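Dear U.,

For the methods section draft, I wanted the exact inputs and outputs in one place so we can describe them consistently. I've listed the two proteins in the order they'll appear in the manuscript figures. Please don't edit the token lines directly; just add comments below if something needs changing.

First protein:
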Amino acid sequence: MELKFTKSSDQKHQIKLDSSLVYAEWTQQTAYYGMAAGIEIGTLCVGDGAPVTITVKSDKGKTVGKTNGMIVRNRCRTSVQIPDSVKPGETIYFEAQLSKHGLKTDSFKIIVLPKIKISDLHWGSA
């Protein structure tokens, strides 16, 4: 995208910059049901405080979770709880939407694994 500015430089001018949604990514390669999964969304020319709606969907298109975020310095970092209803082996993705800017994109898909469970711990003397 090339911008060309041809107005005089000794006066104030108002210009409009187009907003864009650059990326929407999970911050991890797998998710665990019953636990939170991290999300990061990157934008360009979006003001601080802009609301983001995040909808997590299964690979079949069923909504399995929702959360809201806010853009700060062209980025939104948040997490979403993966419900127990998502079965191990399913893949999920999320839709990020900035409705005030008319922007929407999907993340890549990640696989859901069983919740990490630690049991029967033993300590011994060295």
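Second protein (the one for the lower panel):
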Amino acid sequence: MSGSEDDVKQLLAGTNHAVVGVNRATGPPQLTVVWFLWDGDTFRFSTTRSRAKYLNLKRDPSISLLIDDFEKKFYVVAYGRARLIEEGHDALARPLLEKYLPERTTDPQWTPDRVIVELRPDRLITGR
């Protein structure tokens, strides 16, 4: 482990993107870039039911997230099992807009097939 608790908090509070890795049924892992929220215990991000990541997580909830700060040469990796939250997307996703697009929080145009993916990491690794 490297990096202070403050380094981790700053990285996870910032508007960095996370790279999400999930297991495909066959072949290499699927990787996707997402906006994310971290509340100190749980990562959350939004996706749609038609995306491969959703379908892969329905089949196998194993998930990895990588958040990188290129300038500070510091990263956080989280591992665990995802939970798909099928109801209440808009209320749970509003903080995503507040974090990444604060100017659009008044009237978000969410599609009805959106869900929240939640990860309470089994393991959190930091490095430089």
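Candidate sentences for the figure legend, describing the second protein: The first helix runs from residue 5 to 13. The beta strands are 18-22, 30-34, 37-38, 43-48, 62-69, 74-85, 114-119, 123-127.

Thanks,
Y.
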